[in-house]
Amino acid sequence: MAHSQGMPVTRVPDSEKITINLGHVDLGYVDLLVSEGVYANRSDFIRTAIRNQIDRHADITRQSVVRRSVELGLCRIGRADLEAARAEGRMLDISVLGLATIGADVTPELARETIGTLTVLGSLQASPAVRAALADRLR
After folding, report:
1. N or C: which end of the chain has fewer CB within 10 A?
2. Any residues with CB less than 8 A from the CB of 131 and at least 6 apart, and which?
3. Residues 6+ apart with CB under 8 A from 3
4. Which residues have a Cβ under 8 Å from the Cβ of 90 and sit 6 or more positions away?
């Protein structure tokens, strides 16, 4: 989905916080590498490790993205996009790998009338009311 004309541009955070549990020894190794200056901090180590694993499995992910017809990166779903779909009598099946944002001006009713399924591998930003309206359609 393209950015809707006339929609205010809002700043989207470029990351999301997650929590992981590590064993004491593994954490000790991470701290050792940080203290030796190999990594700037624990987060730098973890981001690098995750990127290395993603690169290691690049063929699998590339094939899966093509097979699933997933939109990569940032997908903004605005009121104008959904109203256009409603006017055409279309239900949207949206798949995103990255960040999906549903505009603050999208009502729960409009979302239910126009979004058939919403699959997000990553993060979804939407109002609590829209999330609740789409709860049975989120994958």
Report:
1. C
2. 124, 138
3. 9, 76, 78
4. 114
What is the distance between the alpha carbons of residues 44 and 65, in angstroms, rounded to a whole number? 26
Domain membership of residue 130 as a residue range: 61-137
- Residue 8 inside a domain? The answer is no
**Whole-number Å distance between alpha carbons of 103 and 10:** 10
Q: Is residue 68 part of a domain?
A: yes
Choosing from 34, 56, 78, the residue where a domain stops is: 56
pLDDT at 14: 74
Residue pLDDT, tens place only, 24-81: 999 999 999 999 999 999 999 999 999 999 999 999 988 888 887 888 889 999 999 9
Residue 13's pLDDT band, with cuts at 50, 70 and 90, is low
Query: What tokens does 123 get?
Result: 């993060």
55: phi then psi, degrees, rounded to nearest 5:
-60, -40
Report pLDDT for 64.
86
In a domain, 78, yes or no: yes
